[in-house]
Amino acid sequence: MDARELTIALAGNPNSGKTTLFNALTGAHQKVGNYPGVTVEKKEGSCVRDGRRCHVIDLPGTYSLTAYSIEEIVARNVIMEDRPDVVVDIVDSSNLERNLYLATQLLELGVPLVLAFNMADLAKSRGYSIDNRLLSSLLGVPIVDTVARKGQGTDELLQAARRAADDPAAALAAQRVPNYGHEVEPHVKELADRIAARRPDLPHKRWFALKLLEGDNETHRRLERLAPDHIEEFRELAARLRQHIESVCGDSVEILLADRRYGFISGACTEAVRRSVETRHEWSDKIDAVVTNRYLGLPIFAVLMFLVFQITFSLGNPMVEVLDGWKNHLAGAAGSLLATWLGEGSLIKSLLVNGVIEGVGAVLSFVPLVVLLFLCIAVLEDTGYMARAAFVMDRLMHRIGLHGKSFIPMLVGFGCSVPAIMATRVLGSRRDRLATMLVVPLMSCGARLPIYLLILGAFFPPQVVFGLLHHTVIENGQVHTSYYLSITNQALILFGIYVLGILLAIGAVKVLRSTILRGEVEPFVMELPPYRMPTGRGLLIHVWERAWMYIKKAGTVILAILLVMWVLNTFPQLSQQQVQQFEQRSAQVRQDLDAGRLTAEQADGQLAQVEHEQGQAALAHSITGRLGKAMAPAIRPLGFDWKIGTALLGAFAAKEVFVGQMGVIYAVGDEADEQSDSLRERIAAEYTPLQGLSIMIFCLICSPCMATVAITARESGHWKWAAFAWTYLTALAYVVTLIVYQGALALGLG
Asked: In 365-448, which ranges are continuous DSSP H helix?
């Protein structure tokens, strides 16, 4: 075994097959996390080839090494600061001129470089004939053909990488860099020489010179740290040279340098690449003519996204119910066992059952949704369709200040906000990711549906507003009309709630993008990669990474908060004297039953009433109950009392908890599902339809569940964004509900 570890950084454009090659090289020996301080995903892995251990870093996919996105900054920071032994640039062989732009910048950076011409089989099938030997000599770097999805060429690629890393001086000496012509090249050299004279130990001198001429602020800050005594000199010289170049050439330095780089690439490809006439009309082009069509593109996209939604939640929900059933069975068995050992009222029993088992079960029950969601997204990404979807949606989403791909997590948000916020990773810009995850909770998730159904059933008996295909039956002199196809008032109200969430999301995006997230929407620069058949191994790795991250990261946070909620619902407990009073009442009922003064049915009813009153007293005495009463004056203008406030506090754990909390308050308890009519009747007897509508609106908009808060903090990289989302959504819910409730009262509709 060679003791020297070889560190390889994999760079490449999105859709070039970089991650597939990373998986082919490292297999299961991978670690996934985030780069320090940013939400960009960091992947590292290892492999052993020919007796030498290789440490492989999968850099973020990027089209260049400019400073326009966090991915570009992270990629070049890793190369410049961590200094891998060799950089392997993964190039889509069927789109050389676009993909080699990144290679020219890596050449300018001055690092040992190897080019992996990936999807070589696809390039050949599309009629490309590439003279690798000639192109390698023109660029001055080794070129290896690979087919990552089949694992072909990986051994040859690692051998080329090892040769370049073992003799970096020779590798750098062989490299060719673009020449920027007689008007620009002398000034690049002058600035690079000045940097070398002041800081001869500084690497990447030509790169620094080019970036200073381009006005790259990130490079300016880096040089400020590396050469604080000379930064002003470098900046002034760069500004003077840039002004001279632009006055002579009549264009910005960035455009001039980009033109020269593409010219350098075009010249090399003209010499070394040939293409046959027979493949001029390709299958990808024919498919794109349909799926990106001006009129058909949007409906096709809508159908596919609907299928993703249906697959995720139609297949996922039964599995969620199974896991939830297992959780309930485990909680019941553990509760019975612990009650035998420790007593029915044991705090340890309550903590383990209601806190730990219920908490972990709540986390694990989401896993099928996460797995199915990312499986569907991975299939669409790996086939190449996701790029087309973004292209189709980009114009529409730009009108509300978001990137085209923001539509995907927003759509998923109608099922569950947790995987929806995780799905914002498909967005390249941090501003777009933040704006999307801040409005995703306004998409009415499935967890809110039990609340809507409870309120609709209590206050709005179903009435047909519009019906088709009816039949009429006369019974006992009464006419009964039934419709096969109908729209009811309940459906319209429910539809209106969903639409309200969408409209509020649009308004929120416009405010966010014009204030705290001000800035241009990221330009649409995504390539339209060729269609490919995804590999089973690649799909499994993608799904496993994200599912495990969800379980490991979000699960621990959710469990911790659930334990806090258990404490708030449990303490302080009723005094011994109060408990004895309830026990004495129960004992008196049993005595009356034994003496024949009460029937069994009457005794059961009175015992249930005593138990209900004891539960209400315990709830009112707990921290949660006290908070509900404390917030009662604030929520009274919304039509809410302390009981609704208590249920809203419980709903912070998960929206469905609202129904369970109301069931506890109204003595329905654990039988809320079986006796939902009873709960609806009790609520309808105490509140008005306007109050019911206010509850629906508030629950639609208000603070997301703690799982969503935890994921927002995780994906945004900071708890401040989770706190902001919680705060602004709660404030918005209060204002909108206040307007609806007080406005209706003023109009006499209460």
From this structure: 367-383, 385-398, 407-412, 417-422, 430-439
pLDDT single digits (tens) 525-577? 445 666 777 778 778 877 887 677 667 655 665 566 667 767 887 789 888 89
Only one residue has tokens 């908490």, namely 359
Q: Could you give the CA distance from residue 157 to residue 162 in angstroms, rounded to a whole number?
A: 9
Beta strand spans in 132-250 (E): 143-145
Assess contact for 479 and 470: CB atoms under 8 A. Answer: no
Would you state the pLDDT for residue 113? 97
Task: Give the C-alpha separation, 408 to 398, whole Å.
Answer: 14
Quick one: pLDDT at residue 69? 72
Shared domain check, 530 and 390:
yes
| Residue in 616, 588, 581, 618 with CA at minimum distance from that of residue 602 | 588
Q: How many CA atoms lie within 13 A of 637 on its CB side?
A: 12
Task: Pick the more confident residue, 119 or 392.
Answer: 119
User: 146 and 122 in contact (C-beta within 8 Å)?
Assistant: no
Residues 28 and 65 in one domain: yes
Residues 408 and 460 placed together within one structural domain of the fold: no
Instruction: Say whether both 510 and 481 belong to one domain.
Output: no
> If 0-12 CB within 10 Å is exposed, 13-18 middle and 19+ buried, where does residue 530 land?
buried
Give the residue from 415, 332, 427 showing the smallest Cα distance to 370.
415
Interval 199-216: pLDDT, tens? 998 888 999 999 999 888
User: Are 217 and 312 part of one and the same domain?
Assistant: no
Q: Evaluate if residue 435 carries a pLDDT over 70.
A: yes
Region for 250 from its dihedrals, namely left if φ exceeds 0, alpha if ψ lies in -120 to 50, beta otherwise = left
Q: How far apart are CA 630 and CA 626, in angstroms?
A: 6
pLDDT band at 279 (very low <50, low <70, confident <90, very high): very low
User: What pLDDT score does 733 carry?
Assistant: 96
What CA–CA distance (Å, rounded) separates 506 from 411? 14
Dig out the tokens for 144 from the structure.
């290896």
C-beta separation of 416 from 445 below 8 A: yes
Q: Is the pLDDT of residue 344 over 80?
A: no
Pair (31, 107) in one structural domain: yes
In a 3-state reduction of DSSP, which class is residue 110? coil
Domain that holds residue 335: 297-447+503-538
The number of angstroms, rounded, from the C-alpha of 150 to the middle of its chain's C-alpha atoms is 29
The label of the residue with tokens 């009356």 reads 592
Which CATH number goes with the domain that contains 210? 1.10.287.1770
CA distance 408 to 410: 5
Q: How far apart, in whole angstroms, are the C-alpha atoms of residue 301 and residue 318?
A: 26
The 10s digit of each residue's pLDDT in 121-144 is 888 877 888 999 999 999 999 999
Question: Are 403 and 521 spatial neighbours (Cβ–Cβ below 8 Å)?
Answer: yes
Quote the CA–CA distance of 440 and 218 in Å, as a whole number: 31
The residue length of the chain stands at 750
C-alpha closest to that of 703 among 653, 738, 663: 653
Phi-psi region of 310 (alpha: psi -120 to 50; beta: other; left: phi over 0): alpha
- 3-state SS, 471-494, equals EEEEECCEEEEEEEEEEEHHHHHH
**Helix (H, G, I), strand (E, B), or coil: what is residue 3?**
strand
For the chain, how many structural domains are there in total? 4
The answer to whether residues 144 and 160 touch, using CB atoms and an 8 Å cutoff, is: yes
Give yes or no for a contact between 377 and 424, defined as CB atoms under 8 angstroms apart: no
Same domain as 160, residue 88:
yes
Q: Is position 653 within any domain?
A: no
